Fold this protein.
Amino acid sequence: KLFALAVAGLLAAPVASADVSISGSTRMMAQYDGDVISLTDGWSRLRFNASADLGNGQSVFANHEFGVNVGSGTWRTGAGQRVTVIGLKGDWGSLALGSQWDTGTKVVWKSCPHWNFGCIGGMNNGRMQNSARYDGQLGPFGMSADVVAASDVDQAGIVLTYDVGGLSLAGGYESRDDADNWSGVGGSMSLGDVGIGAYFNEVGSDDGWSATISMMGFDIQTGAKNSVSTHNIGYTAWASGPAKFRIEVSDGDNADTSGIAALRFDY
């Protein structure tokens, strides 16, 4: 009888309504590829976030993000365009299922000003489809683990992090079915208004690295992938606000000097 009363009470309890928010980032840029100048979209996106309380410190969340081509006024299509997940979170951490970044991004992004020209020498998989990812934190120590299972287990990875004060460190490994495995280490440090960072990663016999220093809105990044060097310099105005203006110039061993000037509005 007590069990029946408990079940009846649980079913009769009101279900919390979901909290839904809309956000996004609209970006346009002038791009010079070493030959011509063009106006193009800068990877704009529209995002819907939702969450609901499940009680006992647990909640469910969902994220639907869509790529938008502002230049042509169309949606971006294709697998892995943006992050789209459903998951659970609580004091134990979070578990997300869907299309999302692999754990290796925590290593590469430690020092990378990942704007248009991306991260020099970064060889992580990027966004994963049909994946599960766990993120947890215990004091300054963190752990992320992912599994891709589009057809059986195609990839499994783990990254360990340590964050204290202005110091941030990360190291990880990804096992890939029918492909070379990935491994990497990275770190960054803030010294007042100056930020420095570096990472190294490899896939089989291929390797890549990057080092970055940033100060007063400027960032200089140098690195290489399989001994082919690239150098980027960038400047961001209004970096702490919703609107940003970004200039980047890139030059390398096997590429012409190129550049972008981008206007971005996050809302």
